[in-house]
Amino acid sequence: MSLFLIVALPFLGALLPGLMNSAGRQAVGGVTFTVSLAAFIGLLTNLPAILAGEVVQTGFNWFPQLGLNVTLMLDGLGFFFALLILGIGMLIIVYGRHYLAREDNMGEFFTYLLLFQGAMVGIVLSDNILLLLIFWELTSLSSFLLIGYWKHLEAGRQGARMALTVTGMGGLAMIGGMLILGNIAGSYDLSVILQNREAIQADPLYVPALLLILIGCFTKSAQFPFHFWLPHAMAAPTPVSAYLHSATMVKAGIFLMARMWPVLSGTPEWFYVVTTAGLITMVLGAVIALFKHDLKALLAFSTVSHLGLITMLLGTGTAFGAMVAVFHILNHATFKAALFMSAGIVDHETKTRDIRILGGLRHLMPITFVIATLGALSMAGIPLLNGFLSKEMMLKEMEKTYLFGPEWLVPALVTFGSLMSAAYCFRLIGHTFLGKKRDPESYPAKPHDPGPGLWLPPAILIVLVVAIGVAPFLAAPFVKLVTASVIGSVAEVPDYTIKIWHGVNTPLIMSIIAIVGGLIVLALFKPLLAVWDKTPRPEAKSIFDDIIAALLMWARWAIHPLHNGAFTRYAMIATIAILAAGYHAWTTGTVGEAVRAVQPIGWVEVAGWVMLAAATVGLASLHHNRLLALILIGIVGLMVSVGFVYLSAPDLAMTQITVEVVTIILLLLALNFLPNVTPEESPLWKRIRDVSVAAVGGLAAMALSYHYLLRDAVVAPISEFHLANSYKGGGGTNVVNVILVDFRGFDTYAEIIVLGIAALLIYALTETLLSGPVRARLLNRVPDKPLSGTQHPMMMVVLTRVMMPVVLMVGFYIFLRGHNEPGGGFIAGLVVSIGVVMQYMASGFAWAEDRQRFPYHGIIGAGVLIAGLTGIGSWFVGKPFMTTDFTYVRIPPFQEFELATALLFDLGVFLAVLGAVMLSLESFSRLARRAHIKDSDEPMDIDPSRDQAVPNTNPEGV
Amino acid sequence: MMPADELMNLAIIVSFAAVAVSQVLSMVRLVIGPSTGDRILALDTMVVNAIGLIVLIGLWQGTQLFFEAALIIAMLGFVSTVAYARFVLRGDIIE
């Protein structure tokens, strides 16, 4: 199966569980499993190529200019991880289907899980490191969603946030590191980067790149000092803990270290940083794990410890270290996922995970006991189980590693870590399952073994644990194959036989010390716990919370003075900033000679200018009277429209006029809820300050325009291109319209979407207001002034009815001819919406609403869809999105005319504008309904024809 | 005898002057008020004058392009006047 399909299947399949939620839990679980199974089988079809040592590659260009291409690659390492992800994924899906309770939303859960699965498979199959980063971030996001799946749990929400903060920060660092790396290698493709070991390690930017990438890996794989998020992620449902936080996602960092091993490892920097971090993590995790009473917390810290162990092995930089790391990844994934699932079973059946309460479960839950015991013994490193093999090899590798201080330090520390590791494994078995047989009533819930849906998945993993442990030669060829693809051409695969008995050697002695020591520690557990409880320790969560709080405070301190919610503040800051930039440009730059003379001014222009200026000054000084301010705005709009006409921009003039009318209506609707007079709020000095900033800004803008009008632009403006190509390329002589629907069609498309969203928001706000406590106050408003008695005057009703067809005709005309003469969908939409609003104003909201057949949301949606489909249509003829085409047709008896796909696009614009304007006006007027005024079904108050037809109307209306 | 285009020019200049003066006078009325009704009517007169101004600009520049703008003002300009009036009379313009 194509690699694309393997990566895409979980993403596409992620839609299914959410959609099928109503089909029942069995169906949701089944479809999720099928999706994973299909991807798994697809992966297996590539097995022969992998076994033959080939690298399967496929890809296409996405953003070649950025070096971001969808190139996928499957080699031994990728195959190994993909096998773990999809294989364990299927077991987890079965387990999760039976684990989740009836009240949990299973569709949501499996959708997130498949999203994660797709992202994770994407990481391990990516050849392009930028693509890898995208998948990397996707795993952080899906992990966030899954940790916080139980939204009602505070711990879950906080744990999710912490995980996202830490891994997201690491992801950011890694982006930097990857960009540096790609820059050095000259390509973002792994296959190229991996060939450039010498160039990369010799580069002065090698160390920064290494550190940044390692921060990414360490945060993801919970290495010291970023290990603290993993235990808090345990608030997730247990299937998530087993899948993401032990078997797969936390191994993404390790995967990347293994992937980058050929180019990054082998230097002292790599050795010291990676090995030290791994060693500290391993020992620290093991010690903390021993003293945790929560089963999942114990397992979480043991995961931290084992991840440290693998990191440490990769850090040594030897081929043997890499081989042991690969082997231990396999072993850890099997026994740890099984252990998590058994912990989940215990939690599920006894309703507690506290080891102090548990004990004696051996008799009550024999199947679970066997599974958990075998898993824990393997983790402790007991022979005949797979954990023993990789632990022996690890000890062999570390026995001769020299880091700091005396030579025996590293071996001693590693032995100590293994000792503690053995101790917590024994404690897990001893304190949970062994002990006296107890009354089932003494647990929070009556424990018993669950159905096979819960125990079968971990049991399958335990079979693997035992099989590899007894017959290591089964796994050995595969481990060597993967190792070969990790180390690439840097070294030879070590000639080492993985077997149980190597004779009595140092690793075996260290191992025996660890196991015996572990038993002793368990015997002394009570006094040790007392000591541990008395020792002061830094609490990671409170430190993290303090750091976040400090950052928040700092951010507030920096932002609030700039961003205080008052528009005047933003305008002032922007004006001052632009002034400063302009001043800088003026003083440091040069200006050309004036090439045009100042034209003489006629007195008609002067009259217009004086009116505009007077209205503006009047507006600024009289704005406290709101209605007067609105009337003055009317003058400004009018004079600007005339100005547009005078400067030969009829399109703009028409738009300005129609927008003006709509704005006035909208503002008057809003003004209905506001007092007539704005109170004086700012002190005098503030007003003086604001006025002077505004005046300086205005003068500067005037000076700039004056200066610019006398000169030509330094670079030829794009308008030349538009003028030259409008008819030739776009088929229209109206350049403005061709720019809107063709040259910049994509912008227009985005703009109508934004317009639609804004209108929907107004609608949503209105609905929220009307469903809240404000509703009663709105309904019982009493107007503060006497009102005229006529609601729907006959004159106005008759006039607007007569105007309606005329307005529609004009709108249609303007719309159709927009491509060649002033007009177009935008203006037509405004014109028609004014025509409709007239009817609302004349006959009232209720009357007009009754006669409105299509909801305005639908009209907006139809507009956006039509515009979008027109754009997509060009794909079918093999052109890029939104390529337009046009042709000339002649239908007798008409003259020849032009048909352009841009017209369809313009229809979309028309509908979106119409819907958006109407929806916002309608929402506003919905707010103004009042309880004591009855909605009238009649078009007008006094209607002679109605009065004559039914002379004896009952005044009560019954 | 005066040639036709000279007469036309003269007519346009005189009309410009007349419309501009009446526009300024409407503006004065708008500023001094005294009632809101006066101001709304003044604005409406200004809209009518603006139509005249636009038609004159079209005549003067010899183009038909601007007549649509004039048409749209003539057709829709009254809506804002009605809205102002309804606001003063009823407070709620769509009820």
From TrEMBL, chain A:
An example molecular function term from Gene Ontology annotations: antiporter activity
Superkingdom in the source lineage: Bacteria
Location relative to the cell: Cell membrane; Membrane
Membrane topology category: Multi-pass membrane protein
All copies of domain NADH-Ubiquinone oxidoreductase (complex I) chain 5 N-terminal, residue ranges: 65-110
Domain Na+/H+ antiporter MnhB subunit-related protein: from-to ranges: 796-918
Stretches assigned to the MrpA C-terminal/MbhD domain: 612-675
Chain residue ranges for the region called Disordered: 937-958
Keyword field: Antiport, Cell membrane, Ion transport, Membrane, Transmembrane, Transmembrane helix, Transport
Membrane-crossing residue ranges in chain numbering: 77-97, 109-125, 162-185, 205-230, 270-291, 298-320, 326-346, 367-388, 408-434, 454-475, 508-532, 566-586, 601-620, 627-647, 653-671, 691-709, 752-774, 795-816, 822-842, 854-877, 897-921
Residue span, MrpA C-terminal/MbhE domain: 686-766
A GO cellular component annotation in the UniProt record: plasma membrane
Any GO BP annotation: monoatomic ion transport
NADH:quinone oxidoreductase/Mrp antiporter transmembrane domain sequence ranges: 126-398
Pfam families, sorted: MbhD (PF13244), MbhE (PF20501), MnhB (PF04039), Proton_antipo_M (PF00361), Proton_antipo_N (PF00662)
Classification via NCBIfam families: PRK12648.1
Function per UniProt: NDH-1 shuttles electrons from NADH, via FMN and iron-sulfur (Fe-S) centers, to quinones in the respiratory chain. The immediate electron acceptor for the enzyme in this species is believed to be ubiquinone. Couples the redox reaction to proton translocation (for every two electrons transferred, four hydrogen ions are translocated across the cytoplasmic membrane), and thus conserves the redox energy in a proton gradient.
Protein's name in the database: Na(+)/H(+) antiporter subunit A
From TrEMBL, chain B:
Keywords noted in UniProt: Antiport, Cell membrane, Ion transport, Membrane, Transmembrane, Transmembrane helix, Transport
Location(s) in or outside the cell: Cell membrane
Family annotation (PANTHER family): NA(+)/H(+) ANTIPORTER SUBUNIT F1 (PTHR34702), NA(+)_H(+) ANTIPORTER SUBUNIT F (PTHR34702:SF1)
Name this polypeptide is given: Na(+)/H(+) antiporter subunit F
Recorded family membership: Belongs to the CPA3 antiporters (TC 2.A.63) subunit F family.
Any GO CC annotation of this UniProt entry: plasma membrane
Gene: mrpF
Membrane topology qualifier: Multi-pass membrane protein
A GO molecular-function annotation: sodium:proton antiporter activity
Transmembrane segments: 6-28, 40-60, 66-89
